[in-house]
Design brief:
By secondary structure, this protein is mainly α. It is about 55% helix and about 0% strand. It has a domain at about 30-100. The chain starts with a helix and ends in a 13-residue tail after the last helix. Belongs to the plant LTP family. PEARLI1 subfamily.
Length: about 110
């Protein structure tokens, strides 16, 4: 009887150890357009003629690094919809992606 209780306790402890602990890591290559407000700020800075230091692109670009060009285009397109008023959204998309080292895929149009 004691050995069955010990075996059950060991079994439950192993289950807790193996299945209850999961690493707290962010999903690589995922896009959340809600976080891309920093990209809209970067876009506004890029489209103004600026003398002096250029805007920091790191906060925006770090959000889309690791994405394929198409995924980055879809992500930024979704973020720009409704946030960019009176501006050609496809031009804005191209400017942002180029700043971050991505390219707009051939034939891609950000539909609004």
């Amino acid at each position: 009887m004691a050995s069955s209780k010990a075996a059950l306790a060991l079994f439950l402890a192993l289950n807790l150890l193996l299945f209850a602990s999961s690493p707290a890591t962010a999903t690589v290559g995922a896009c959340d357009p809600a976080n891309l407000n920093v990209c809209v700020d970067l876009l506004e800075s890029l489209l103004k003629i600026r003398l002096g230091p250029q805007p920091a692109s790191q906060p925006c670009c770090s959000l889309i690094n690791g994405l394929a060009d198409l995924d980055a285009a879809l992500c930024v397109c979704a973020a720009l919809k409704g946030l960019v008023n009176g501006l050609n959204i496809n031009l804005a998309l191209s400017v942002l992606l180029n700043q971050c080292g991505h390219q707009v895929p051939a034939g891609f149009i950000c539909a609004y």
